[in-house]
Amino acid sequence: MDELAKEAGITVRTLRFYRERGLIQPPRREGRIAWYDDHHLARLRTITGLLERGHTLNGIADLATTFDSGRDVAEVLGLGEPTEETPVRLSPEQLADYFSDEATAENLAAALDLGYLATDGDEIVHISRRLLEASSELVREGVPLSAVLSSGRLVREHAEALADLFVRVMNTHAEGTEPDRMRSLAHAVVDAELSMALDRRLRGEDDTGTTEK
């Protein structure tokens, strides 16, 4: 315990307090000897980093519980990683830098449930750099992260329906099309339709072109 506290830059008294609060896992015991490892040190450094960013110990305890119960990368990514999206590895402190005080246990749990986040040892993995950066930009624009995540769930449902529709059409009428070609065509159609739909909404029109009152 003395060695771990020294390595983490905290007092033994603080370390004992963290253990009592359940902020770190119990050590591995061999007889009367308690062994701590790099995972304990990483968690202590995470606690220090989150405290420096303004998080409370209660909030950190909630985050730790949620983090420890999260789905791991293999479960989220399945048999293979995304072909276009690039996963991003983050420490809990880096995640807090992206979302500041919006990085709460509730939002972390929602992101884990949605499959945006996964755990890999002491790291958090976001499944898509583009989604991570867009989400953080929305938060900086004033949109609560909870709203971003709930909207993301709806977008996911519509995206799945669009993917099913496009694959069904291509398999029916253009079977054998290369996956990359199919992906490119689908992007072109969906991007164009979304762009036009946004134009209509920004002009205050509905789907028929009639101005909304």
Question: Which CATH class of the domain at 1-52?
Answer: Mainly Alpha
Structural class by SSE content = mainly alpha
Number of alpha- plus pi-helical segments: 10
- The parts where pLDDT drops under 50 for at least 5 residues are none
Could you estimate the helical fraction of the residues in percent?
55-70%
Q: State the major sheet.
A: 3 strands, antiparallel
Oligomer: single chain
The separation of the N and C termini measures: 68 Å
Count every beta strand, where a strand is a DSSP E run of 2 or more residues. 5
Please trace the helix and strand order, writing H or E for each element: HHEEHHHEHHEEHHH
**CATH level 3 topology of the domain at 1-52:** Multidrug-efflux Transporter Regulator, Chain: A, Domain 2
CATH architecture of the domain at 1-52: Orthogonal Bundle
Report Rg.
23 Å
Name the shape in a single word: elongated
Task: Assess the beta-strand content as a share of residues.
Answer: 5-15%
Structure description:
The chain has helices at residues 2-8, 12-20, 38-52, 57-68, 73-77, 92-99, 105-114, 129-140, 145-173, 179-202; strands at 28-30, 33-35, 88-90, 117-120, 123-126. Strand 4 (117-120) and strand 5 form a beta hairpin. The protein is mostly helical. The N and C termini lie far apart (68 Å). Among the domains are: 1-52, Orthogonal Bundle (Multidrug-efflux Transporter Regulator, Chain: A, Domain 2), CATH 1.10.1660.10; 152-202. The strands form 2 sheets. The chain has a 3-stranded antiparallel β-sheet with strand order 3-5-4. The protein has a two-stranded antiparallel ribbon with strand order 1-2. The longest helix has 29 residues, at 145-173.
